[in-house]
Design goal:
The structure holds 2 protein chains of 2 kinds. Chain A is α/β, with parallel strands linked by helices. Chain A contains 18 helices and 14 strands. Chain B is of the alpha/beta class. Classes of the chains: A alpha/beta, B alpha/beta.
């Protein structure tokens, strides 16, 4: 790592696991260094991605057109009924509105949209400009809520007030406001009821996990927020356990639900065969129900019988290859390290946009010696470390893909606009398959050596 | 299950909201404009999200790494002024990329707090002892217009700041060719090939043919090669003429107009060379300027296009189209589709532009069928009008996939952004050969629809009548 020149201010965000560096903590959760070409987004983005899959809600972006345009239905969250969330609504603020204020326009937009679409709930997102011109979002939303008798919730997500993580928290606060105190007598239920937090139903992933739980004998009350409805969210306090997949976005809501309604929570991961099986067992043990524990083992055994032949096949093909990981959240990065081991690969570089200190501690523990660990990396660092570490593959999002390809490195999308599920047992097979299709593509042999061949 | 529960409503165009945006914001266009200058890096003065979102969109369209810096404005910078953060950003960009030119664009945030990037950059140059000519500054507030507007405005800023005064410039025989944001790298390459075949010296500005579509190579460099060289930009004031492709608009905003006013370079703004007539117009203009005729190979391509127009004419005439998106592209497409008989039913531009509306109305005035024309529109409107008008094909960027999904109108993907297919950077739709490809695609789209539905349609229409 010594030969790599880092930009001033970036030194504390990069570590290499090894004897010398093992104990050095990494900085995280800080603002990005100006001009470092961070891969991160903003507060608005964080709030938007968490709330967006609430399928029957009307999502109105109060701001200039770009913010709505860049987030309009770009994610792969699926729904089983209403699809209002796939429409992009914006107040499309113009110069005049910036000067005279956008409150009138927002009120007019709500007057037009609510009667037209009759949504059960409205989310109004503020953007950078709205934070600056000081539109009273709360007042406009409150007036509209009273006028139409539906909750109209302001989402205070001006982009500049922090990182994407702040946006997650803002979204959790909004969701929490919708949740009503528990009504059902939990003891009277025949099956345990839980909430599933931090799954956005990309390519139907929440459905996959719900189907496992159903077979085991556990009902899912509501998923936050994949394929969720307003009515379901209101009932969220009627659960005896919250399980959290994406901790970065939902840990905070789980904490709030524990404080307010004494619902315990646990972190789970449904990425990879091992994590999926472990998580199901953890949930089963929590119920303390012998029937559930037995059925869980049956489900796991049946699934393993089904998927392991495929996984083993891929492991043979991929054994010894090296992976680099650059994803949004810390928990996903941790799962990916384990998942790569399942298919015979070693992770040599791992970084996140919004990982928390606890995540980096676990990464530091489980990573192999020599692994590069990065917080809030930029293209220059990604390029350098993928090359020096000899990575064969990068896991990342859309922005990272062309970089990997230009370097001749295989790539796996683990972002939010993918169209195939990566969660659960079948997701693990899909993942292994995707890794195989990119690393083992004959294309790499054909393009080896670049544009000019000596004998041509 | 995917259900469209969005009602289609008849109504007027007036709106206080955009329902499914048809456009993006000014800095987006500014980035693409600057990416066509050799050795240029871009910094957005604003909060982190803007550059990330725009990088994502551009990377997805071009399948290229797109590095764009951000001053990552935080709360403090927003309240007390962000000049320190912008200066740090410039320092870091210079250190990591060593660019020849740095374009500094603003976002809504910086514009609203009144950040003066011209002044901050001047200060920076004084403090660090670097030349101002290394920088291009362009205020591009996100609420100031569409990405197309941001593109033209940034090009205008480039020529204002980089083209040298006449006494320092050398008059030359070159022709300035200024292309719109909807020119793909493949379009720019096609233009270069055509001009080279005619042996005409030219300056293409901006030139994204390599920077946004670079070949796979043995080694990767953070800065890509290609782009209009700055030295060539310096000399645009000495050119023989400027040909600028685009729809009519407020001329004061266009770079070619500036070159005419300031340096007396004859200025022609014409439709993008899509379609036989509009491409002919380009060549007749070239002949007027340079005295040269099109090359033999180009003449052969013209002949092949005519052949294709005849081959496909009946099928094309069965098409009634919706054109949407960028003003420059919809303007050129209005001419092309009218010429082949695939008459427009709806033409919708994403930006506010009275001149565009008048020009497009004139093109379609004689087709004898109803056309609905909107400027400054959204997809709520485009979809509603397409259904009412009975469009059976649409041409435009990827966000038009909703026309396909909700209204069953097949979409020919063209323009920016194309984010649900690969190869946006390789689509060539200009000049004779490019038009030929576009024509084939449109006709084949209509045929595909016809062949995949006619068995059922005929059955439903005629069989029940004989069934007892």
């Amino acid at each position: 790592m010594e030969d790599v020149v880092l930009l001033k201010g970036r030194e504390q965000f990069v570590r290499q696991k090894g004897e010398r560096h093992q104990t050095l903590p990494i900085s995280c959760g800080a603002e990005s260094v100006a001009g470092c070409v961070s891969q991160r987004a903003c507060v608005y983005c964080g709030a938007r991605v968490v709330l967006n899959p609430v399928a029957d809600a009307l999502h109105l972006v109060h701001g200039p057109i770009g913010c709505a345009s860049y987030t309009w239905d770009i994610r792969g969250s699926l729904n089983s009924g209403k699809s209002l969330y796939r429409e992009g609504f914006s107040t499309d603020l113009r110069e005049k509105d910036i000067i005279f204020g956008g409150e009138t326009k927002l009120a007019a937009a709500l007057d037009e949209l609510i009667p037209k679409y009759q949504p059960p709930v409205v989310f109004v997102y503020s953007t950078c400009v709205v934070g600056i011109i000081g539109d009273d979002l709360d007042a406009v939303c409150k007036a509209a809520a009273e006028k139409y008798g539906v909750p109209v919730l302001p989402v205070q997500s001006s982009g500049f007030v922090g990182t994407k993580s702040i946006g997650y928290q803002t979204a959790c606060d909004v969701l929490f406001k919708l949740i009503e105190p528990p009504t059902t007598k939990l003891l009277l239920r025949r099956r345990p009821v839980i909430n599933y937090l931090g799954d956005f139903n990309l390519a139907g992933e929440a459905w996959i996990i719900r189907s496992y739980l159903k077979k085991i004998g556990i009902d899912v009350n509501v998923v936050f927020t994949g394929d969720s409805r307003y009515e379901e969210i209101r009932r969220a306090a009627n659960a005896e356990l919250n399980i959290i997949q994406c901790a970065g976005s939902m840990f905070y809501l789980a904490q709030k639900l524990e404080e307010a309604y004494h619902i315990p929570f646990m972190q789970v991961s449904f990425l990879g065969v091992e994590d999926t099986a472990d998580s199901l067992r953890k949930i089963a043990r929590f119920t303390n129900d012998p029937g559930i524990i037995r059925r869980t083992e049956e489900v796991i055994a049946a699934e393993l019988r089904r998927v392991m032949p495929d996984i083993s096949g891929y492991r043979t093909a991929l054994s010894g290859k090296k992976a680099a990981v650059y994803v949004g959240g810390g928990f996903k990065a941790i799962s990916l390290i384990r998942q790569f081991r399942e298919i015979g690969m070693e992770v040599v570089m791992v970084g996140t946009q919004t990982g928390r200190r606890e995540d980096y501690e676990i990464i530091g523990d489980i990573a192999n010696d020599g692994t590069i660990i990065l917080d809030d990396a930029n293209p220059a660092e990604l390029e350098r470390f993928m090359l020096t570490q000899g990575a064969d593959l990068l896991v990342g999002g859309v922005k990272e893909r062309p970089l990997a390809y230009k370097l001749g490195i295989a790539f796996v999308d683990h972002n939010h606009d993918r169209k195939h599920p990566l969660a659960g047992f079948e997701g693990a097979v899909n993942f292994a398959h995707e890794v195989y299709t990119t690393i083992c593509s004959p294309v790499w042999n054909a393009v080896k050596g670049g544009v000019v061949r000596g004998d041509l | 299950m995917e259900i469209s529960d969005v009602p289609v409503q008849q109504g007027t165009q007036s709106r206080s909201i955009a329902e499914n945006p048809c456009n993006m914001c000014m800095p987006m266009g500014g980035i693409i404009a600057l990416k066509g200058i050799e050795g240029a890096m871009v910094i957005l003065h604003g909060s982190q999200g803007c550059s990330t979102y725009m990088r994502r969109h551009i990377a997805e369209h071009f399948d290229e790494p797109v590095d764009v810096g951000s001053s990552s404005l935080n709360e403090k910078g927003t309240i007390y002024g962000g000049s320190d953060q912008l200066k740090t950003a410039i320092d870091n960009i210079r250190k990591a990329y060593d660019p020849a030119v740095i374009g500094v664009l603003t976002t809504c945030l910086a514009e609203t707090t009144g950040e003066d990037v011209h002044r901050i950059v001047e200060e920076y140059c004084r403090e660090r002892g670097v030349s101002r000519s290394m920088f291009i500054t362009a205020p591009t507030p996100g609420y100031g217009g569409s990405h197309g507007d941001g593109y033209w405005y940034t090009l205008r800023c480039v020529v204002e700041q980089l083209v040298l005064p006449l006494e320092q410039a050398t008059p030359h025989e070159g022709v300035n060719i200024i292309v719109p944001i909807t020119f793909s790298p493949a379009d720019v390459r096609e233009m270069k090939r055509t001009l080279s075949a005619m042996d005409i010296p030219y300056t293409i500005f901006p030139d994204i043919s390599e920077t946004m579509d670079r070949p796979y190579g043995a080694t990767y460099t953070k800065m890509s090669s290609g782009g209009t060289p700055v030295a060539v930009l310096h000399n645009m004031g000495g050119a023989k003429a400027t040909i600028e492709f685009g729809s009519p608009g407020d001329e004061r905003k266009f770079p070619g107009k500036y070159l005419e006013e300031k340096f007396g370079v004859p200025y022609y703004r014409i439709a993008s060379p899509i379609g036989l007539v509009q491409t002919d117009e380009f060549f007749s203009l070239l002949k007027k300027i340079t005295g040269k005729s099109m090359a033999h190979e180009t003449a052969a391509e013209r002949g092949r296009l005519m052949d294709a127009m005849i081959d496909g004419h009946k099928h094309a005439f069965s098409g009634r189209c919706t054109l949407f998106g960028d003003a420059d592209l919809t303007y050129a497409l209005a001419g092309f589709t009218t010429e082949i008989g695939m008459y427009p039913r709806v033409i919708a531009s994403d930006s506010r532009n009275r001149h565009w509306k008048e020009a497009v109305s004139a093109i379609t005035a004689d087709i004898g069928e109803p056309v609905t024309i909107f400027s400054d529109t959204d997809f709520g409107t485009v979809r509603r009008e397409s259904e009412i008008g009975g469009s059976n094909i649409a041409i435009g960027h990827s966000d038009g996939k909703y026309l396909e999904e909700h209204s069953g109108i097949p979409l020919v993907r063209l323009g920016f952004p194309i984010h649900d297919r690969i190869g946006g950077q390789r689509i060539c739709s200009t000049l004779y050969a490019g038009t030929n490809r576009l024509l084939d695609t449109c006709v084949n789209t209509l045929l595909e629809r016809k062949f995949s539905t006619y068995r059922k349609r005929m059955y439903d229409q005629y069989f029940p009548q004989i069934e007892r």
